[in-house]
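User: Can you write out an input/output pair for a complex, sequences first and structure second?

Assistant: Here is one pair. Inputs:
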Amino acid sequence: MQPLLTTQNIVKRYANHTALENVSISVPKQSIFGLLGPNGAGKTSLIRIINQITAPDEGEVFINGEKLRQKHIENIGYLPEERGLYKKMKVGEQALYLAQLKGMSKSDALRKLKEWFEKFDIATWWNKKVEELSKGMQQKIQFIITVLHEPELLILDEPFTGFDPINTQLIKDEILQLRKNGATVIFSTHNMASVEEICDHIVLINKAKTILEGAVSDIKNTYKSNVYEIEFKGNMMAFTNAMWTGGELLEKAEKNGTSKVKIKLLGNHKPNDLLQAIIQHVEVQSLNEIIPSMNDIFIQKVTEIKEEIQ
Amino acid sequence: MNKTLLIIKREFLTRVKKKSFIVMTILGPLLIAGLMIAVIWFGMKESDQQFVLVVDDTNPVFSELKSSASIKFEYSDMSLEQAQNIFYESDYTSILYIPENILSANTAKLYFKKQPGVITIKSVENQVENIIEEQKLLLYNVDRETYDKINTDFILDPFKLEKSGKQEAVDSSKAWVGFGFGLLIYMFIFLYGVQVMRGVIEEKTSRIIEVIISSVKPFQLMLGKIIGVAMVGLTQFLLWVILTITIVTAAQVFFFTDMMDPAVQAQMTTEMMEQMQQSKSAQFNLNDPNNIVNRTDWGVMLGLFLFYFLGGYLLYSAMFAAIGAAVDNETDSQQFILPVSLPLIIAYTVSTMIVNNPEGPAAFWFSIIPLTSPVVMLVRVAIGIGDGGVPYWEVGLSMGLLVIGFLLTTWLAAKIYRTGILMYGKKVNYKELWKWLRYSS
């Protein structure tokens, strides 16, 4: 399937530094695409280029195979990390204004806004001034404004900051629902737990360059290191005696008669070989493959690069 | 373009709906009209009846002072010293002291407890003057008729004679009308230029800017804001004009009708009446063709006022918008505001100087340069355009340069604006601004 958005060799230079160096990404349709990277890596620069706020020095952006143009603005919903509203303006009036700036007709915008306000149970806020709302409330309004015109592409930069757990779940559910309805989401965050939870693809940018890109499951598979965790009842001595040369004991711990060990399998050995070796000596309760978290991969990748440079 | 309209509409409506706008719009003319009325009213109003003790050293010649409803004269044999001693124990509101040598010195003294109104002083003055005149006529054996023939009120009428043979009265009072318009432009540019700057800073600090410029181009936002605020300014100006005229007209009807009252007029001496007639015809009589109101070409002045106001405002507000984009808060804006407002202040200073010489070289140059022309040119064109006034080509050149000037500054300001609005937490200096100017889009 044709990707919704691709960028080809994007270069963006500022006076003293390069923000993006040959960044090429491909965002599949109806995916939730994590845009990851440490602070100052160039994420915001890339987002601004996709939003046509700034133009790249080199390279091109395509949406649905078409070169990015002015008219695509209406297909994009953008929730910036640094976001705010006019403080003195009334909530409803402001939402209407921003929706119209995105190209919606007034009646359309009004109808859809009413729907969303009902859905989030905030209809009473309509005539309040923004400054009377809490930060979390303002974030909700901003989210509604971002998705109101039903864009094909949503760009959400740290969408969950400022929300309590209940509202975080609410917004998360809405994002998943929007994807189901056909939207593609570019999701920029530092929160690796939420990446794991909702992203299907990611790209990792560091120091202006792409260092990792692909489906989350693929990446995890590449980064798993054949380590297994086994829980068993029985003597630790018996277990270590039973261990054979196909595995290396990394960690062990004993608590209330239950032991937990981490084993790295060497060569072509499979977990079954391990089980066969120990099953007669201890009572195995569970065996799990240790899959690296996105957090681990993120830190590993970024530090690797740091070391390379040094 | 449609989106720019949306922005203009928002900028206009949010400002016009503000309490401060409504208060300023109503209070402004009330204050101006109120001040004008108060000055005139208090000047004319006689608070109490005046009771004047006359101490006359030339006794008995000054017995002809006539009491009226508002002034009562009482003669006494007291010396000035005695009169002064009893002054505060008495009911007299003032002492009129007529010295022995009044016919040669031509002065008398009026001592008062509380400052009497203009009318009292005028009335006493006129009566005494009349009596002195009568005495002098007697003294020199001249009859009244001859005196009236000799008494001369001479006026020199200066005219400018054009090459074409057309004659025109020279008058700097017209230039003062132009100066008034120039002053308005000066104030409006500051007032609304700063509003544009504040608006930009507000969008930057509230962080709404990034949401908006993902929907519209920064230039559209800047232009929308500038035009929206300009319309607020024009609305306010229009409302001020309408309200001021209404208030002044109403005040004339309510407060000054008694001036036309025959009972009041009867109290005035004939000479006072004449004086009032004269001053009225010179300043207030709208039917007199020599009146400053009628000598001013309002069509041309209003047209040019609108043009130069818009041109000057667009020129300066683009710069103010750029300042707003470059800084993070209003305190940081000071260092940039000064150089931007300097030419405007110079323009104001120059126009105060050229009011009396609207055709000198300073007047010419400052009315051509776009940064100062919006204020200075209005002083000059008030005299007239074309034959006898500012040559057409000068007005045309000035207007053309102003248009070029504002296109140029808007283009440059847009470059700074575009970069500045996305720049947070950075102290900006002129070197940095120069760099922004050279960024390509």
